Amino acid sequence: MKTALNKTTSKSSHANGEGRSASTETTTFVGLDWGTNTSCLMAAPGNSSETTVALKQQIPTVVGYAADNVLQRVLPGDAKVLFGQEALAHKLYLSIVRPLRGGVIHDLPSARQFAQHLRDRLKAGDREVRAVIGMPASSDLAARENARKAVQGVFDKVIFVPEPFLAALGYRDDAKVNEGKYQDPVANSLYIDIGAGSTDVCLVQGHYPTADDQLSEPFAGDAVDQIILDGVLAAYPDCGLTVARIRDIKEQHSYVLAKDGATPAIATVMVGGKQRKLDVTDQVGAGCEALLQKVFELTRDLIARADAESVTELLQNIIVTGGGSLIKGFGVALQTKLLEEGFENPRVRVLGENYKDYVARGALKAARQAKDRHWQNLLG
Amino acid sequence: MPSTAASVQSSNPRFLWNEIVRWTFEVCILRKEGREGKVAVLLQERLPALIRAWSSRSGQPAAACQQQLRGLFGRVQESVELGFMQQRMIVGEICARFADQPAYARLPGASGAVALRREVPIDDVSAMLDALGEAEFERMGESILPVRRATMMPRDLFAEEPAAAVLTA
C-alpha cells in the first residue's frame, strides 16, 4: 500500500512537556501490535484527523536469511534477507527465524531487522516516527528493555503499553459512545487475551486494569502447539512434524466443540519422499481443550474478584481476543463451561480475525493522545 | 528544605536562581516518573513565586530573564531525559546480568510484570500513560532492590549459591 506519510499538509506544534506532541507536521504516529506470529502495523501522519489511518498492514513476524549457495534470481532482487509473507513464500531457500517467542523478543538481531523492515514500509522518509507498541500484560522490565533495544535507531520515540489496554481502547468506538444503544465495551467487561506465550484476563470496569484486576498464565498458543506435537509424536513417532508445521495444522483445524471434532484434521506429511495422511484430530482437540480449561479457570477466578454488584452486567461482556480466539467454537464452549459452573446467563463474544486490528488501532489512538513527556527517547 | 515563602524572601538573586534550577530539575524528574500531581503543585506554587522573586531582583531586563529561563528549562529537560535513558540502560544491564542467577531469581521483587498500581479512567489516556511510567519506574526500583539486598546479605543466607557467587558471576 502506497502511503503519503512523508507529505505535510498543515501546521501545528506544541513544544513543551504538556503539549500533545512536538511538531506534529513532521511526525508519523505508529500503532504496532508486534505479535509472535503476525504483526499489525497502523500509521498516520501526526497532523491527520483522529480517525485517519494512512497505512494498515498485517505482516507475518518472520525473517528469512538466504543460504550462501542460493542460485541467482531465485529470490526477489537476490535479497539476502526477506521478511513476512515474502520470506514464507521462499522459505525453501531461507533459514527462517521468528524474532519473538511468547509475545516477547527472543532473537534480538532478527527483531531489529524486522523492526527496520516495518519502518521501511512506512515510507516515512526523514519524518520523526513515534511508535506505541503493545506488550503482553505479563511482560517484565527485561522484556521491555529487549523491545527497546530492538527498536533503537529504528523508531525515534516509543511507548510500551500492555496489549489488553490497547485492545480495549481500539475496540471502543468513540463515535458511538454517546449513542444510547451503544454498549460501551470498556464500561464493565472482562477481556481475555490469548496470545502465543501467555493468556491474560483483565477486568475493564471504566478504568484501566490494575495489578489486582488481571490474571496472567504462561499457557497459551505455544503450549497448545507443544501438547499437539507431543500427542502426534506419541502416535506417529516417525512423522517428522515440527512445531512450525503443527502451528499450521492447528490454525486450520483447531476446535473445542465435539461437533467440530467430527470433521477430521488430516495432516499431510512427507516421509521418505512419500506422502502420508495422518489423522491428528484427537491431538488437536486435546491441545485446544487444555487451553479452554485454563482460560475457564482464569475467567472464573477473576469474576470472583469483581464487585458482586457488577457481576451480572460483567457476565454479559466477556470478550475473547488474541490468536487463541480463532479456535473454532471457543466462545460457545467457554460460555457453556461458565453456565455449567453456575454463572447466570454469561455471554462470550469473540473478536475474531480482526483482533490484531484492535490492538494496533488502540496503539495509534494512544500515540495521538500521548504528550511529549510520555515518549521515551531512544539513543540512535 | 526551606519553604517557598522563606526562599522567595531571600534578596540574593544567586540563591533564588539556584532554587529555580533545583526545582526545575525536580519538576522534570517527577514528570518523567509520571507524578503529575506533585508536578502541578510545583508549577502552580513554588516555581512561579521563585521566578517572580528572581526576576525582580536579578537586575536584568524582562526579555533577558525570559531567555535565561528558557535556556535553563531546555538544558534541564535534556539532562533529565539523558539521565533517565542512562538509568534504564544501567538497570536493564544489571537485571539482565543477574536474571539467570537462581539465587537472584528467588529473591522477592526480582521479576514481575509492569502493572498499574492505581485506577485510571479509560477516557484518560494521558493519565494511563503517566501511571504506566510511574509503575515502570517503581518496578525498576524493586528489581534493583534484590541486588542491593544480595550485596548486604550474609553469605550463609544463600544455601546453594553464596551471594558472592551471584555478584561476581
Question: Could you describe the 3D structure shown?
Answer:
The complex is a heterodimer of chains A (380) and B (169). By secondary structure, chain A is α+β, with helices and mostly antiparallel strands. Helix content of chain A is 33%, strand content 23%. In chain A, helix 5 packs antiparallel against helix 8. The longest helix of chain A has 25 residues, at 281-305. Residues 6-17 of chain A have low confidence and may be disordered. Chain B folds into two domains: 1-87, no CATH class; 100-169. Chain B is elongated. Classes of the chains: A alpha+beta (380), B mainly alpha (169).
How far the N terminus sits from the C terminus of chain A, by CA atoms, comes to 28 Å
CATH H level, superfamily name of the largest domain in chain A: ATPase, nucleotide binding domain
Largest sheet of chain A: 6 strands, mixed
* Largest sheet features of chain B: none
CATH architecture of the largest domain in chain A: 2-Layer Sandwich
Q: Give the overall average pLDDT of chain A.
A: 87
Count of DSSP strands of chain A: 18
Shape of chain A: flat
Structural class of chain A comes to alpha+beta
Q: What's the CATH class label of the largest domain in chain A?
A: Alpha Beta
The fraction of residues assigned to DSSP E strands of chain B is under 5%
CATH topology of the largest domain in chain A: Nucleotidyltransferase, domain 5
**Radius of gyration of chain A over all CA atoms, rounded:** 22 Å
Query: What is the rounded distance between the termini of chain B?
Result: 42 Å
Query: Which band does the percent of strand residues of chain A land in?
Result: 15-25%
